[in-house]
Design brief:
Strand content: 5-15%
Order of helices and strands: HHHHEEEHHH
Radius of gyration: 28 Å
Helix content: 55-70%
Structural class: mainly alpha
Number of helices: 7
Number of strands: 3
């Protein structure tokens, strides 16, 4: 229906031009993949996301908040970060809505908005925040765990993973103490105490 196609198809240079264009495209793709690999080596959590997603993140480097939709792929259990008006990041938020404040806020502009650099600082801030929460939660547990009401209050006050970690820590300590002081009789007493704690939660 379009005779121009037939005329162009007779062009003997057409195949050579397509082959040359394909060669250039492959060269460009190789350089692009090499570039993405350098970004992944700088921030290994980028290996968890696709090339298309990584390209979008890198192309939006001047808009740090646009990284939010990919955070859960980089950091399991993190849905979003809280950005202040000046783009300071001071909190991480889980999919369940639990919030953990950072010990010290950070700003992507301090890293010239290079995504791999400021996300690495976010990762460091996450570690510091969890470490700080664990330390403060231990002190809080010691102060409140003598009464059922205090222990329940402690459970409800701290994020779930912190409660889990500190509960395991004190369960191990209390079990060892019961064994050392009263052997099997101590374990039975401690089991009864654990049963009371469980009832207070239900």
């Amino acid at each position: 229906k379009n005779p121009s196609v037939l005329i162009k198809a007779d062009d003997e240079d057409l195949l050579r031009k397509f082959q040359k264009a394909n060669g250039k495209l492959e060269e460009i793709l190789k350089k692009l993949f090499d570039f993405l690999e350098t970004k992944r080596m700088a921030f290994p959590r980028f290996y968890f996301i696709s090339n298309d997603a990584l390209l979008e993140i890198l192309s939006e480097s001047q808009e740090p908040t646009r990284v939010q939709k990919y955070l859960s792929k980089c950091f399991e259990g993190v849905k979003e970060l809280r950005f202040r008006e000046n783009l300071d990041i001071d909190q991480m938020i889980s999919p369940e809505g639990e919030k953990v404040d950072f010990v010290k806020s950070l700003n992507p502009a301090d890293c010239n908005n290079q995504v791999e650099m400021w996300l690495e600082k976010v990762e460091d801030s996450m570690r510091d925040a969890v470490r700080d929460h664990l330390r403060r939660s231990i002190d809080d547990y010691v102060a409140k765990s003598e009464t059922q009401e205090g222990r329940v209050g402690w459970l409800l006050h701290w994020p779930g993973q912190v409660v889990l970690a500190i509960s395991c820590l004190f369960w191990t300590k209390d079990t060892e103490d019961a064994l050392i002081t009263e052997q099997n009789a101590g374990l039975h007493k401690y089991a009864a105490r654990l049963q009371e704690q469980k009832q207070a939660l239900v």
